[in-house]
Design goal:
mainly alpha, 2 strands
């Protein structure tokens, strides 16, 4: 029997195109779009926010305790 084909490699850009980011502020969840690109937390770069209001609210809501 022939050997199974190797899995196709996928780039980070391709993954990002498939996955829509949502604002990480728990009361928001707005989807990332070309018209409203989300920004990461400048400190940890692990959280995404639709704007400064959500980032500030998330910081006050507890992100500061886990942000590194």
């Amino acid at each position: 029997a022939p050997a199974p084909a190797a899995p196709a490699e996928i780039t980070v850009k391709e993954i990002e195109a498939l996955v829509r980011r949502r604002c990480d502020h728990r009361a928001c969840g707005v989807e990332d779009t070309a018209a409203n690109p989300h920004r990461t937390c400048a400190r940890c770069r692990a959280q995404w926010y639709c704007g400064p209001e959500c980032q500030k609210a998330a910081w006050k809501g507890g992100h500061r305790t886990v942000c590194q």
